[in-house]
Amino acid sequence: ALKGRALYDFRSENKEEISIQQDEDLVIFSETSLDGWLQGQNSRGETGLFPASYVEIIPAGISPNHADNSSSPADFSSTQVSLYSPSVASPARSGVGSGFLSNQGSFEDDDDDDWDDWDDGCTVVEEPRAGGLGTNGHPPLNLSYPGAYPSQHMAFRPKPPLERQDSLASAKRGSVVGRNLNRFSCFVRSGVEAFILGDVPMMAKIAETYSIEMGPRGPQWKANPHPFACSVEDPTKQTKFKGIKSYISYKLTPTHAGLPVYRRYKHFDWLYNRLLHKFTVISVPHLPEKQATGRFEEDFIEKRKRRLILWMDHMTSHPVLSQYEGFQHFLSCLDAKQWKMGKRRAERDEMVGASFLLTFQIPTEHQDLQDVEDRVDTFKAFSKKMDDSVLQLSTVASELVRKHVGGFRKEFQKLGSAFQAISHAFQMDPPFSSEALNSAISHTGRTYEAVGEMFAEQPKNDLFQMLDTLSLYQGLLSNFPDIIHLQKGAFAKVKESQRMSDEGRMAQDEADGIRRRCRVVGFALQAEMNHFHQRRELDFKHMMQNYLRQQILFYQRVGQQLEKTLRMYDHLP
């Protein structure tokens, strides 16, 4: 057991946690944290879990009183545990108890498994709900991986001297800006609070950098110097274990590699979870939903393929996501052994969450923080309105699909049957029956029955594509409230630190450091907003063009059928 001291108050919210108070002496059972949590005993004899970032471990031979004199409450020195944890979520809420438990993208225990051993239908994804969700609107990933595995394809670059804060030097001065009381907010859980306050350790070498530049509409991501696209084709049912297990594989062909690779949905799912874990301030497009039953039905396979195509298009067009080493590995690896090595390298990536913010190179142009906050507020209102309107259009389009497949087809079938009945009635009195007229009316009935079938088939040509795009944007928009919350939290810390500096309770250079790190978050969010608008304009232009073109073609085909039927009446006496 180790001695420790509480740096901040923490109030337990479930039976696995214990409450601790600032400056309380603690007994810590092990200095190894479990997803940002330590287990120990407080001064009242209660045993349980508490956040590692709230505790300072006191080295053997140093009394608690000596430790009080040698460090401030926020002195994140080498004697303190867990300067940054990717997730500060309650173990009871995140599914983590006395051991690791995760079924979304966690591969710590499958060292002996090959790359197609997971069942596509092992879990069913539910729609995201507000509360207790990660930065991108999904349950937080409680994964932490020791050790860094640098990219094989990127050279190490020295950090820019002005735009990257040496957080260790800042920590020695001791930040006294208060921490958020809600330790389960995404601002805290994502690690952005720790980054803003200078508590994220600076890496000696950073293997990846992402640049933000000033464009005509403000900050924007620097374009990928090697742009590419990737097709998703040929969903094929495969079997293993002599047919006991079945799955669908998709053929992916990236333009910059030229060689096709074959991936299952669970490979996409692994990549998606890595993206959520790493890219804190980026709206990662949601994958198409999983389905527990009917995974091999033709309609479901076709729908998933269409939505994977859209997902891939957004991934390859994003200047940051498209350059991610894990994504490149996903698109290019052909060898099972190399796949496993690259997978583990991605899982052990240290530049995730708050540390990902250390990879940014931002412009030197000055931006007034109030102007940035106003811009973010405008985008927040816009995204909420767009989310509501996308949901409205999606609801209307879904109802229209239902009518096409059901109501419209039935009504045209009824009309066709009625015309057929008229034709049959006219044949009941042969001396006065006109064979040509009866035949024309009967053909009219069959034409309207055919039109009903055309209506039933039409959503595959237009409404399905519209719903695919709307579904993708519902996912993208659902990410932004949490991302905007990160920026709002950063603004609040800047205002608080400046007030403390004005009151003489904080050094001005420390307040300037908080402001400088807030600029990083602000530039990143504005760049993401800019990219979202660019893609939105392109995607909705294509969506509307495709819908109108297909509608025109559809009604032209209907018109041709009716004109052909009309000509049958031209030569009747």
UniProtKB/TrEMBL annotation:
Region annotation (Disordered) ranges: 87-120
Gene3D superfamilies recorded: Arfaptin homology (AH) domain/BAR domain, Phox-like domain, SH3 Domains
GO terms, biological process: cleavage furrow formation; endocytosis; endosomal transport; intracellular protein transport; mitotic cytokinesis; plasma membrane tubulation
GO cellular component: cytoplasmic vesicle membrane; plasma membrane
Biased composition (Acidic residues): 107-120
SUPFAM superfamilies named among the record's database cross-references: PX domain, SH3-domain
Keyword Cell division listed: yes
InterPro entries the UniProt entry points to: AH/BAR_dom_sf, PX_dom, PX_dom_sf, SH3-like_dom_sf, SH3_domain, SNX33_BAR, Snx9_fam, Sorting_nexin_WASP-bd-dom
PROSITE patterns: PX (PS50195), SH3 (PS50002)
Compartments, record wording: Cytoplasmic vesicle membrane
GO molecular function: phosphatidylinositol binding
CDD domains from the UniProt entry: BAR_SNX33, SH3_SNX33
PANTHER family, per the entry: SORTING NEXIN, SORTING NEXIN-33
Family: Belongs to the sorting nexin family.
Designated name of the protein: Sorting nexin
